[in-house]
Each structure stands twice: as C-alpha cells, then as structure tokens.
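dumping this here before i forget
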Amino acid sequence: MFVFRSEAGFKSYAATWPESVAGFYRPDGDWDYIAAWNNGAAFDRVILHEYVHLSLNRNGARVPPWLNEGMADLYSASGAGIAVGGPVSTHLATLQSKAWTDLPKLFAILHPSEIFQFAGGVKLFYAESWALAAMLKLGPEYRDGMTSFLARLQSGESSEGALREIYRKTVDEIMQDLRLFVNQSNFPRIGVKVRELEGVNQIPAEPMSPLASGLELAGLQTVVSGYRATEEKLRSLLPAYASKPELHAGLAAVLLAQDRRHEALAEYEKAIQLGSLDARLYFEAAALLRDRVADNERAIAYLRRSIELDPAKPEARELLAMLYMRVARDREAVEQLRAAAKVSPVKMWTWQNLAVAEHNIGEKQRAIDAARQARALATTQQEIDMTEATTRLAASETARLPGFDGPSVVTPKSWENPQGDSRVEGELVRLDCMGTEARLHVSSGGSDVALHVADPSKVVLINPPSSDGSVNVELACGVWKPPRAVIVDYVAKANTELETTGEVTSVRFK
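structure:
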C-alpha cells in the first residue's frame, strides 16, 4: 500500500486515471497494489474502498461495475467502529440534487472505463451504485436474497435478470423501493463482531531509506507503466546506489521479466559480488547458468550458497541435485533430494528424481519407494507412464539412469513473462474485432486497459483445459458474459488512433 503526501506525487503514478481519482487498486500476480494520496478527511474511506476491490478480486468475485463500486462504497462508509453501512453524505447530496438514471442504464455499464462516460455523470453512477448495493445488503426486503443474487451474477446472469428472479420484482418496482430506502431518516447500519487485535496500535513505524522506498515504488511503476518504465526508474538510482546489491537484484529481475537473460545474469552477479544475502538471487543466477555445461561448477556454488542462506526452500536443492546428477555426483544429489522431499513431500518431480538417484547409488528399496511415491503424485497420463517406467527400472539391475528435468527446476516463477515488457491481470470484458486486427479490453483494479492485437496468429494463448483435457476457449467478438480472468503480456506501445496502450503478445486464461 502506497500513501503519497501530495496529489502531484500520486498523479505521477496515476496518469491514466481521471483527475478526480484519489486512489486505485491494481492486481499483479501474487501481489496487490493500492495507491492513494492523503487528501484529508476522505482518506480513510479511499483506502477502505480500494481494499474492498482487492478483497473481491482475491475471492474470485465476478460482479458488474455498479456492484463492485457500490459494495466498495458501502463497506468503506462505516465510520467509527466496526460496522457495515451508514449514510454517505456526498452520495445522498447527489441523489437529492440530480435526476436519477434508470437502472437498466446503470446495468449497461459492463466495464470500468465506461463509468466515466455514464449519461448521468460519474457522481451519479457512484451514488446510485452505492444506494442499490446498500439496499440489497441492508434492506429488510432484500438482504435475505443477497447471497442468491450474487450466485446468479457469478453464473453469468445479467443484473436485471438476477434481480427479477431472486426478488420477483421489475426494475421499476425496485427503483421505487430504492427511493424510499434512500429517503429514510435512520439509515441502516449492521454492527460486526470481531476479535480485538491486541497491540496493533503499539506497532512502531520505521522510516524507509530512499533506496528501499525507490525499490518499492519500482514495483508500483511496473503495474501502472510496465517493465521499461521500471527499468528507467531503477537505472536512475544507480549513480547514488551502485554499491547496493539490492538495486542490482531489482534491476536483474526487471531485465529477466523482459527475457533479457544475459543482462539479468550480469546484474545478479554484480549483486553477488557486492555481498548479497538474498537466497533467491543466488538461485536465479544458477538457473540462468544451468544450461551452460562449462559453468556447472559456478552454478553449483551459487546453489550451495542459496541453500546456506535459506535451507527451507526446496527449489534450490532440486536444481542442485539435477546439476550433481549431470556429472555423476549421485550421492550428493541424493542428499539434496532427500532434504527437498522432507521440506515439500507433495512434488512429484522431487520423488521422481530421488528414485533415479537412489537407484544410481545402489539403494534399490529406497529407489522403489521413491518411485511409488512419485506415481502416487502423478496427475497427467505422461507423468503416470513415466513414473510407472521408473518404478520398473528401480527394481531392475539397469545401469546408471539420467535425471529428469522437472518443471520445478526448469523455470523460476519470475520468468513467467517471456515476451513483452508489461503485464496486466484482470478480466477480459470485451473483444473488438477490426478486420484482421482486434482490441482487447481488460478490466483491472477499477480501470479499463485497452490493448491492440496487430496479428492474432502471433499471440500466444495459454488456456485452461476442459474436463476432458482439451482446450476449450473461443475468442468471441463483443462483450464477454461472464468476463474471463486473464493475465495479458504486452509490449507497452501507445496507439492514439486505436486508443490502446500496448501490443498483446500472450493471453493466459486463469
């Protein structure tokens, strides 16, 4: 979470958002980012509002923009104490001074970018969304049906259809109820019982160094502007902090995300020479060296240091074992694989390689036991066939077996962006087909990211399997109902004519 002292500091990271925005939320793989500026009395509400967006996203909620924003305002309006609900004076003032928009027009907003073109204005969109979400959650005639209503939306039903089915009312009848709900004198609020967190107020705040804050801001820069902008920010710190290993490590990670592996390795090794104590850094450097046979001993040295710094991470042990087996140092491989299996006993590839290594040092029964454990963890037909073959070989008198390059030791997690220099995670809400080209609209953290598909044949599609194991995703033109959760890699490249911010390189359907 990033809190800026000034509006100018915040706007330097929120250039793509409208001027009225005081905070934003952006998801990015394993991380979530909230940024806001401390604008006084409304600050607490802004932070709570964005945190509700985070919570909805992390819990897999698939809700339309009006409900996403309405619930965020509802849960951020509690004021003092732990409660849900309560009046929002700015929204009440808007509803009292403006002509309301019919609910179907509110429901017609299908992704966040359209909010700012709402016929009644942005303020009215947020005010009506808040009021309707509050009535559904707190209104005596509506609150019991809220769970069923949300389930209908999750299944892809429209807002109007789900309301009609659950509450047996037309949108006109619901609008009449909404006006009565807003005009009541005692606005409902529900108290929430929570366990008191002892000592929270006593947690000391510690100042960050300029370098530490710069590295954290680089992460925020990545989710709003892409890897190239982040690289520029990190390089701007080099004149003052060239002797700091953490800066070179951060720069290496950004270069690696752009698939610039040679440059990334150089930065990792600068950090190592400067005395880094980051175990992950040594592992990443070794992984970059793993296919260079001449550097086998150098990679082994890096992995041994990684394990020394963090013995609980099995990935370094697995890769080290593979490199040992490459040069027939099987007993050392067995030592590492036994330790890895103890730390993480549910990884099929660890047991698979342990079976081979045990066989190679003459531990037949241990080899058979490890092979059977690998078979029990196998999920695909290929894994089943391989582990069954290993079980048979482990019981035989076969000469020395080679190790297997399992997925867990081939590619570190940070290498998951092999193309493009930027990434956005969110929901694919619309696909505009434009002859031989297309434009994707991804809803992410309350904003719409429009991306250009110049040549669909060159875009890598990474799709989830259907129940029978076949790929079952069809790219259909128009609005996607329901939206699909995606991670899109792209090259940051603005196209003012198409109003896009980048060229798509791959789409991963989650």
